[in-house]
Amino acid sequence: MNLPNTISARWLGGVLAAALLFAAGPAAAQSESGQPLPRFVSLRADAVNLRTGPGRRYPIDWVYTRAELPIKIVGEFGGWRQVRTQDGTSGWIHKSLLSGKRTVSIAGREDRIYREPSKAAQIAAFVEPGVIASLMGCEEGWCRITVDSHRITGWMPQDVLWGILPDEFQY
Prior knowledge:
- By secondary structure, the chain is mostly beta strands.
- The protein has one helix at residues 3-23; strands spanning 29-30, 36-37, 39-43, 48-51, 60-64, 70-77, 80-84, 90-94, 98-99, 103-106, 111-114, 123-127, 132-139, 142-147, 152-157, 161-162.
- It has two domains: 29-100, SH3 Domains (SH3 type barrels), CATH 2.30.30.40; 104-162, Roll (SH3 type barrels), CATH 2.30.30.
- The strands form five sheets. Strands 8-7-6-3-9 form a five-stranded antiparallel beta sheet, with no helix packed on it. It has a five-stranded antiparallel beta sheet with strand order 15-14-13-10-16, with no helix packed on it.
- Residues 1-27 have low confidence and may be disordered.
C-alpha cells in the first residue's frame, strides 16, 4: 500500500466533489419544514403576537391586529417562524397563526388597479398604500389581485406590491 497515493486520491476526490457542488450553482435555501426560504405567507388571525424569540417565554414585541397581512418568513425553529414585515420589523410568530393564503400590500403611494395588465387599460379602482389584496398570480411584471373588502379584481405592476419575491414568478 502506498500511503501518499491514497491520501492524494482522497484529497483529489474531495476537491472534485466540492467542484461539482459549486458547479451546480446556488440552491434555494431549505428550511426545517422543507419549504423554501424566504417565502411569503399571511397572518391567520386578527390578533397575532410577534415575539423577540422562538417560544412563548420570549416577550411580545408587537401585536398585529390585521388578518391576511403579508409576512415574509426568513427562518424556522421548530414550530416558530422568524418573520419580517413590510416596514422591516422582525421577530417570531408561531406557525399556527400563519396562513398559506397569498396576499400583498400596496406599497408606497396611491396607485391604480387596471382591468387588464397594461397601463393603457381602463382603471378599475384607485387604492391607497397599505391596502391588503389577495394575490391571484403574476405574469410579465403584472399581478392579478382582488381587494376582497370591495370585491375589486384587476391588475397592478408587480413592483408596487409588497409580498412577492423578485424572482418568484419567472417569465
